[in-house]
Design goal:
single chain, 267 residues, Metallophosphoesterase, Purple Acid Phosphatase, chain A, domain 2, alpha/beta, 6-stranded mixed β-sheet, CNP_phosphodiesterase-III, Calcineurin-like_PHP, 29% strand, Metallo-depent_PP-like, iron, binds fe (ii) ion, 13 strands
Amino acid sequence: MTVIAHISDLHFGRDLQPVTEGLLASLDALQPDLIIISGDLTQRAKTSEFAAGQAFLRHLEQPRFIIPGNHDLAAWNLLERFAYPWRKWKRYVATDLEPIMQTDAFMAVGVNTARRLGLSLDWSRGRINRKQIRYVQEMLQHVPEDCLRIVVAHHPFWLPDSSLSRSLIGGREAALQGFHTAGVDLILGGHVHLAYVQPLEGMLVSHAGTTLSNRLAPGQPNSFNVIRGDRNRLALEQMEWRGTGFESIQRQFFQRTAGGWQPYDEV
Ligand SMILES: [Fe+2]
Ligand SMILES: [Fe+2]
C-alpha cells in the first residue's frame, strides 16, 4: 500500500511557524512514501520566501514531488515575471518544473499550470495546453496496468458550489478528455485553499487546503491530505490543524470499477 502526503499552498512569507512544526511532526509519524506539494510555495516569489521554502524542503525526510503555482511567479517585478520567470524556482526549489516520478506502485506526472500572462484580467488563473496534455499522455503510455496514475497541477479542474466565483483551469475539457484516455486515476491540486475530493469523468479530483499559511479561506483551517491505497482502492484522509497539531477529520473511500472511480462505504 502506498502512502502519500499531499500538502499545498505553503505560501512562505505568510507561513505559520507552529503549524509548520506540527506538519513536520505529523509527517514524521506518518512516514509517507512520498510528499506531494501542489504549488504556491511562496507568497510573492521573493528571494527570502524561496530561501525559507528551500529550508523547509530540506527538513523533509521522505522523497518529495513539487510543482509551482501562480504565487511562485513575481507579481510586481515585471522584468522578472516576463524575462526569467522561473529563475528563482530553479535556483531554490527544483530544476524541473514538470517532474515525473515512477515506482512499482505509482507514476506521478507534474504539470506547471501557472502563467505569466492570461487572456482574462485574472492572471492567477491557470491553464493547461495541448503540449502538456500530450506530455501527460506520453509519460503514462507504458505504465503497468496496476500502477496508480497521478497528475499534479496547481489549478482546479473542479470546484465546489461554494467556490464557483473562482475560475476553473483553462483548457480543462481537453485535459480531462486526454487524462481519461491516459487512464489517470488522481488529479491533485491546490490554489483555492480548500480541501475536497470529487469523482469526475471516472477520475478523482482531490485538492488540499493551504497547509501552512494564514491565507485561510473562510471557515477553513490549515489542512493536508493523506492518500493510501493502490490502483484498486484508495482512502483519502483529510487532516486539519486543531491548534496544537493536525488531526484526522474524515476519510473517504473509493474503488476503481469498470466505470471509473466510485465512492464506497468501508464496513
Ligand atoms: Fe495559494
Ligand atoms: Fe494559487
